[in-house]
Every structure is written in C-alpha cells, then in structure tokens.
Write a structure and sequence with these properties.
The chain has 241 residues and is of the alpha+beta class. The protein contains eight helices and eleven strands. The strands form four sheets. The chain has a five-stranded antiparallel sheet, with helices on both faces. β7 and β8 form a beta hairpin. It is globular. The two termini are 33 Å apart. About 7% of the residues have low confidence.
C-alpha cells in the first residue's frame, strides 16, 4: 500500500525526465537546441510537442512520459498534476523569510492540468524517484525493463559543457541534462569523479555515482544549498566499501 507515502514537488525529476523525453526525438534537434538552461529544456519539450502534432508520437507530453518512462518503471505516483487523493499527501513547500520558514506562495506555479513544462513541475514520491535514479545507475534498465540504451546513459553523463564556462563552479561540468563531477578536489565535494545528477528549485536533490553503484535522493521542500552539500558529505562518508 502506498496511500501514506508523501508526494513531493520534484523539479529535479522534471529536468531529467524532460531530457529523456527529448532523447526520443533528439536526432532532429539543431545544435542551438542543446544547452544546460531551463530554456533549452523547454525547447526539448517543444520538439516532443512538434512530433506529437506531426503524428510521430501519440498523446500529449504527460502521456508520452507516462507511457515511455513512468509506466514501464512502475512510477505510479509521478504526475504533473495530483489527484485529490495525492493532493492530501502532498508535502508542504517552504521559503525562508526573516530567518523563519513560511509556506511558499503559489507552490503549484510550475505545475498545471493543461500546460506541462519541460523544465520542471513534476510531483512524485521518494520511492518513484528512487526507481528512476536506479534505472540510470543500471545503465538505463531496471527490473528487466529498458528505458535507455547503455550508450545513451553514457552520453548523458559525459562532459559536454566544461567547468571553464563562465559562471560554472570549478570541478563541475555538464552533460546532457545533468551536472557531472569532473574534479572532486576542485569542486570541494566528497562525490566521486563522474557522479551525475540534478537539484530542483524546491530543495530536491539527487545524484548517481557510477563508481560506487549508488543513488542518493533528498526531498527537502525548501531550497538550502548548504543542506545539499552536507547531505552529499554524510552519504559519501558512510560508504566504506
């Protein structure tokens, strides 16, 4: 039974799921459609929409993701818009104001019943998110269901945007839709070289470590950057083998 499992807003999952959707039609993308910003990910969503309108893909973007990713992986609680039952389990989101946590104004601003953003807005549970992350850690397959080819996952975590790009942090590069730890010492992180993942605007955070065969997920519903760093350190310090 999953009825008591909390549902959280996970913009991090929205980023990567949107990238997976675009992977199915990426062969049509022009070079200028590739990048690391949310605007570029919205373009990927537009590519999917274009193929839907052309009849190459059936259904809307939410149906596409449900049929190609969420359904096959058993991610039954992942949605752009919660049902009434899911809404009752939806975790509250907060912002910091004058040193206190207060409820976030309009927490559904990136979600909707009709418009589905390619840069975020999904809601899910820790269990669903873990299945998604484990699929990536297992080179695109989970429980006998293949979502991506091993080569696609390898390309995802390969470095396309180096840390020398203005505004990037030393030691942290970008792959296809995910950040990639290029140099742990320069990044000042306990994460292993090659670890990849993403952070959501509402405080969600995940990464996959190919070296340790490990996935880690944090579903804090408020954005506190030091918390993410502390979480990474605590997890990696616990790895002894």
């Amino acid at each position: 039974m999953r009825t008591n499992v909390a549902v959280t807003r996970t913009l991090a999952l929205g980023f990567v799921a949107a990238m997976l959707a675009g992977a199915a039609v990426a062969e049509t993308a022009a070079p200028e459609d590739v990048g690391l910003s949310s605007e570029r990910l919205e373009r990927i969503g537009e590519l999917v929409d274009r193929h839907i309108e052309a009849g190459d893909i059936a259904g809307a973007v939410d149906e596409f993701l449900r049929e190609r990713v969420f359904g096959p992986l058993g991610m039954t609680d992942t949605t752009f818009w919660p049902t009434a039952a899911q809404r009752e389990r939806l975790a509250s989101s907060y912002v910091s104001r004058d040193g206190e946590l207060v409820p976030r104004p309009n927490p559904d601003s990136m979600s909707g019943e009709r418009y589905f953003s390619a840069a975020g807005g999904l809601m899910t549970t820790a269990e669903d998110y873990a299945r998604f992350a484990m699929m990536l850690a297992n080179d695109g397959e989970l429980d006998g269901v293949r979502i991506l080819s091993p080569r696609s996952v390898e390309m995802m975590r390969s470095i396309f945007v180096p840390d020398t790009l203005p505004g990037r942090q030393p030691g942290e590069a970008f792959g296809l839709g995910v950040r990639v730890i290029e140099n742990p010492a320069e990044r000042r992180t306990w994460l292993s070289e090659g670890s990849f993942g993403w952070s959501g605007a509402y405080g969600t955070h995940f990464w996959v470590s190919p070296r340790e065969r490990l996935v880690a997920i944090l579903l804090a519903q408020t954005s506190v950057r030091p918390l993410l760093d502390d979480f990474e350190t605590a997890v990696m310090q616990a790895v002894v083998d």
